[in-house]
Amino acid sequence: MNPTLVLVGRPNVGKSTLFNRLTRTRDALVADMPGLTRDRHYGIGRLGPRPYFVVDTGGLEPAAKVGILAHMARQADQAIAEADALLFLVDGRSGITPQDKEIANRLRRTGRPVHLVINKGEGINQVIASADFHELGFGQGSVISASHGDGVGDLLDEVLGAFPLEAEGEGADEQGPRVAIIGRPNVGKSTLINALLGEDRVIAFDMPGTTRDAISIPFERDGKHYTMIDTAGLRRRGKVFEAIEKFSVIKTLQAIEQANVVILVLDASQDISEQDAHIAGFALENGRAMVVAINKWDAVDDYRRDMLKMDLGRKLNFLSWARFHYISAKAGQGISALMTSVDGAYSAAMTNLPTPKLTRVLGAAVLKQAPPRHASIRPKMRYAHQGGTNPPVVVIHGNALEYIPSSYQRYLEHAFVEAFKLQGTPLRIQFKSTRNPFSGN
């Protein structure tokens, strides 16, 4: 196994900045605001002499006993338990604090190797920067600048040198489909993630906006590999005020674009809103395969269930190709059937469509109902082939195809979906008209 390096420390010492530096990504939100990171954030180290995993954690608040800070502390404790080495970050500019001392005592009791990392050391004398932290008991420490990259390479050489190098190919990570959990705030997205993983992997708290970042979580279920992405809840644009929340929305939209399948989570105790339709519409515009999970189904009565099903048919009728599941993430009900539909949607999104069969289906559809004329011109479709996956794209070649109306295009989409059993994914059609080389002569 590749070693796991866990970044710990009090809030706002630069853990997320160092995480982005080590992974060469911008996956972790970074801002001059304490307490921004809340959940464990895993990444693959791409800087240094060998492969490794790196985990970003929320700022440790040793005195926190209740509320969101206590949940953050539990997440950090779970990350520490998984660590092969701990990188204890402190702020070289503000000096040692009582909170640093409490965290140091806590880390000593874990029995894990601890490497003191003195961050924000750009432009200051390294000897002076490290002198203040000797009393923590972790030696001289490494002075770095996570934002500028100063000293990070030497730190990795020291930390990773203690671990034997694996044989090539060992510990390869098979991530499988990327599945993004999306929806409005407080509908149970994080609870669903925890139910799938069987542990409190992300903070599930009865407060809208608890999740701020898009958290990628590789896991295995029934021998299949997945990467689940817990996202921040999307509110209406007019209700997004904080700059941090705006960044969270951007991360959620990026997660949808990068996913293979999205699970749209709705709250059975609330009406289907315009915002739910907007979120589903954005996923559809990006061509994502989709499964709809109506959560908290056990918390509503039969009358409410009947009304909700009618509401779904009216407001989300454009998702007729997706499978709907009525679940309780908290009680773990309906999770297996949900994941079966996720597998089916992924297979449909990535399926290969043979050109001969596509052309036969196209011919049968045209024979059943020919495209309408445009003035004296009737479009002619000659053959079809696949132009891409996720979503499946069918390219149709012929003459005067620019005159085909959208209603006939939807008819063709339905014909291909029925013929190839593409349940759970949208399908795109592209028309390519043959140019007449003698036109204008």
Report on this model:
It is built from 12 helices and 15 strands. The protein is of the alpha/beta class. The chain has 3 domains: 4-160, Rossmann fold (3-Layer(aba) Sandwich), CATH 3.40.50.300; 178-349, P-loop containing nucleotide triphosphate hydrolases (Rossmann fold), CATH 3.40.50; 355-433, 2-Layer Sandwich (GMP Synthetase, Chain A, domain 3). β8 and β9 (224-230) form a beta hairpin. α11 crosses α12 (406-420). 40% of the residues are buried. Residues 167-173, 203-212 and 237-245 have low confidence and may be disordered.
Task: For this entry, give a set of tags.
441 residues, alpha/beta, Rossmann fold, GMP Synthetase, Chain A, domain 3, 3 domains, 6-stranded mixed sheet, 12 helices, 15 strands, 33% helix
Mean pLDDT: 83
* Global morphology: elongated
End-to-end CA span: 69 Å
Per CATH, the class of the largest domain reads: Alpha Beta
Stated plainly, the CATH topology of the largest domain is called: Rossmann fold
Count of DSSP-assigned helices: 12
Adjacency order of strands in the biggest sheet: 2-3-1-4-5-6
State the CATH superfamily name of the largest domain: P-loop containing nucleotide triphosphate hydrolases
Report the structural category. Answer: alpha/beta
Helical amount among residues, as a percent range? 25-40%
| Poorly predicted spans | 167-173, 203-212, 237-245
